[in-house]
Amino acid sequence: MVGITSSISSGSGIPVVDLSPFLAAAAEDENMAVEKKKAMEAVKEACSEYGLFQIVNHGVPTALIDRALQLSADFFDLPDDEKRKFTSNPAGGAALPSGYNSRPLHSPEKNEFLLMFNPSSPFNVYPTNPPHLREVMEEVFVWLSKTGWLMEGIINDCLGLPTGFLQQFNSDRKGDFMSVRRYFPAAEDEDRGLTPHQDGNSVTFILQDDAGGLEVLRNGVWIPATPTPGSIIVNIGDMIQVLSNNKFKSSMHRVVRPKGRSRYSFAFFYCLPAEKWVEPLPEFTEKVGELPKYRKFQFGEYTQLRKRDVIDPPQRPEDSIGITHYSIN
Ligand SMILES: O=C(O)CCC(=O)C(=O)O
Ligand SMILES: [Fe+2]
Which family, according to the similarity comment (predicted)? Predict the structure, then answer.
């Protein structure tokens, strides 16, 4: 089936979009053009209503996704001493410490993670156990970079921007990173995995196992991103919201830890390079007679401000720095 859109009735809670009409292998016939149009409408609705949706037939091999999640679980199952051997020296130069880390004990969020940057980056610290985890993480990184390029092209067209504009605007891949995570089972009185937040980047891609727990806020209601085998979650980040002057929505999402089992996920952050200046594009401001909703800023400045949230998380989510920091009222 091609180009399906669904809403809450899909059973997965969030919209599902089939990307096969956009893949290079898709035949350029009339039928495919219709399917492409339908899929575009689905993405448009998903980006303006939810900011978070699932994609299927995206080109990333399902076997790779399953293997990656399994190997990460094998790693996180190792004793703490063993995992700590793969933690970077904070003086390494990366914006965040690469390799293994866990949230500070006082954090309201309860998870541990492995952070990696572009495979060619000298900052990366990889576990040697399980032996194939490194190569699988690198493969996932490369695949999701391709998905990022594809998705930014689709978002670009859905926003009605000149062909290839976003991909050109964001063609430098040095700022991307990936977080491989384990969420511990919920305690009797406490189930926070990730507190409600919006992602500060362009687009995030999430691979999740079958535990569930990721939720998106829509019209005041938390909607589950129920796992569908082989699917990838697409999350619109703050940069798309700013560039589109709020036409597309940076989703408010959270992770609630499931009871009785751990949850494993990969989150790949498709970013902008730090030096890039960002502001609402003229297509959504002066060309349509609208005032910009954000002032101009450098992406790197915003990520530096947000870094504090990761290293020293505030007790209340409302104390986090978010995109409203740049709002023009
Ligand atoms: O692990 C997940 O499912 C979500 C991760 C996430 O939202 C984030 O890292 O910003
Ligand atoms: Fe997030």
Answer: Belongs to the iron/ascorbate-dependent oxidoreductase family.
